[in-house]
């Protein structure tokens, strides 16, 4: 403490350099008294009331999300009471849908929805993963932007446009070209049997696959990109080939998120309405033959709601809507949790 | 002293190496092939749509209402106007609610339980099939007001709110916290800080989010099937059934008349054009960065 | 023109972490007071308690007495009222990018509802002159955005913005640490000019800077105020061994 301090202390009275001589001292140039500004600010209210009301307004608006869910649930539950009371659980176990004679069995729609979604996933998931791998690793950087743009475009095309295209272009192709080939090679399985008019379960599954491809692909891409690069480098440094690096470092780490992406695609497929209605044939059959027309939960509502006569009919359709709502909520909740766990909640893609 | 490796082990090593290389090439080829499989039909779809639509599009499409069955000519002018009215109603409800909800999540509800619940619910709501929204609007509005533009607008608004809430929140989260601190440090109350600093800085991104939501609901058909219901004539009333572009396309596509098919293609092209414009604008904006100013 | 600040037994927490422990000191009016200490010692937290910015973090808490003049800033006033009397300049320049230079400087007034255009013009000019930025930007006031200036200019813009509301106290949290030496020198000149009109508290990592501009200096260590004294005495003859160790570079 008695040692001289090694820090040399310049005298504080050294006039600071760089002060421009033509700059007048601040006091002389202003005609206004400083206290005017101070007085003004002191007299302003601190805005507590406005702050509180503003915050309250924002909160109420955010709570509207819950209100929306509540309203949807209320309508669905309330207006399906007639059907629930009339049929109970039999509604989902019987397959006789005959509104004219008053019998409502929803099993064919469950079958149609599940099979078409499953087939769509079967076709879309491998393709999505391959394209995702291509984009994140193999693809030259220039092409990356183009593919991303095209994928977004694909995701944004409205359902009715897909349906129109499928009706006019895909259905004849399925009927005249793809159908006979499938029947010749795989007809022995019983899945592909004549007659085939093009509007059937298979065509609908193909359209669904095209529609859910973008969402599975882009979210898979997101979760794969979220894998830290040092994992990839570590694998490569050990001498792994590209595929091995992807398998060990990327896919393994991202697999939870990829599962989430697939489930999100499933959620989208379960609820897809318009494009499916236009090419599935709208026939409540439960058969193995994929060339047979079919019917999904969403399609029957779209197709028959406006012509439904009688409260029981409408109520039955709304009960189907309730089932669809609950199923998609559960599926989407699971998917979002999985994706969130991997990407920490940053993705809000609805495409 | 290194002893020579036994012959068999050398062969094994080579075989493993070959297998690994082949697998690698196979997967690479698969990935490239898949991309081609996907891209080629996509481009074909778009090309076909544009071709069919362009050859069906004419001025009458934008100015006339549908002609009676069997006659040619006619257009979808009433559907375009109808969509406009429905979308105006939907935006008037959906955009303010959505932005305000996003403001809450970003400025007040960052880490709390309520904020996370709202966020999660909004995300899940985004995955609900749009036809369910139609049923909800039917049960709430149509039973009181009959099929109407109002009901259609409400159905679409319900779809817009969760989307806009989340995109607004994301855009506000990109505003650096330092800016808010600077404003608060000046004695500016929180509400004013949110309006004049946070919202003002994030506004381009927020507008983009609203545009995306708008384009998305503009193409929706299912929620309008039994709310707006459709109308073959002019209608400007909020409490009457009204035509909408996607709805009209749907009905015409399923009809057996060639003339109506032609109109459906033209309408599809208009919708695609709208979508392409908004997606392209969003991409352009995203590449320019969020905050303007600066070098 | 400035006002003095008396702090007694100030304690602050971030969640469970006790970041400030029983800090007591008296900052004199119209002087520059420097606060030094190693990273994480609490000096930034302390300064943020002086204008209640500490509270903007939802898990933050403060207890104790801070009197500015004759007002206890925690009991007798709201945070907004205090912050209008206290200006703050942050470590990294943060001008509002969506506003012009003019609007940036005037923001403290305009966004608080002040409308008189003539007075605003004069205030903007005066503040920019005080911040030694006027000559460089006077032709671009309404054309360029606040974020289009260089780093040093941006920081001076932030100083002008803080001065425009005519505060009684100016808090500066390492204002030159992100800047090049030329800009740093300019800002130190500014502080020298301004301290006769305002009470200035500056947090700095740079001991030479403290020695250059401040009359009194406080040394913080692990949340406590170890020593607080006239600058020359602190640097040439510190009373506490810990202060001496820090100054001579044994740690930090």
Question: How would you describe the overall organization of this protein?
Answer:
The complex is a heterotrimer of chains A (351), B (295) and C (252). Chain A is an all-alpha fold. Chain A has a single domain (79-343), classed as MetI-like fold (Orthogonal Bundle). Chain A is 68% helix and 1% strand. Chain A contains 13 helices and 2 strands. Chain A has a two-stranded antiparallel sheet with strand order 1-2. In chain A, β1 (97-98) and β2 form a beta hairpin. In chain A, α5 packs across α8 (201-225), α5 packs antiparallel against α10 (242-271) and α6 (141-156) packs across α8. The longest helix of chain A is centred in the last third of the chain and has 33 residues, at 311-343. By secondary structure, chain B is mainly alpha-helical. Chain B has helices at 7-56, 59-63, 77-108, 113-125, 130-145, 149-173, 177-185, 190-218, 245-254, 258-288. In chain B, α3 (77-108) runs antiparallel to α8 and α5 crosses α6. The longest helix of chain B has 50 residues, at 7-56. The termini of chain B are far apart. The model of chain B is unreliable at 289-295 (pLDDT under 50). The mean pLDDT of chain C is 90. Chain C has a domain at 5-92 and 168-247: P-loop containing nucleotide triphosphate hydrolases (Rossmann fold). Chain C starts with a strand and ends in a 5-residue tail after the last helix. In chain C, the strands form 2 sheets. In chain C, strands 6-7-8-3-9-10 form a 6-stranded mixed β-sheet, sandwiched between helices. In chain C, strands 2-1-4-5 form a 4-stranded antiparallel β-sheet, with helices on one face. Classes of the chains: A mainly alpha (351), B mainly alpha (295), C alpha/beta (252).
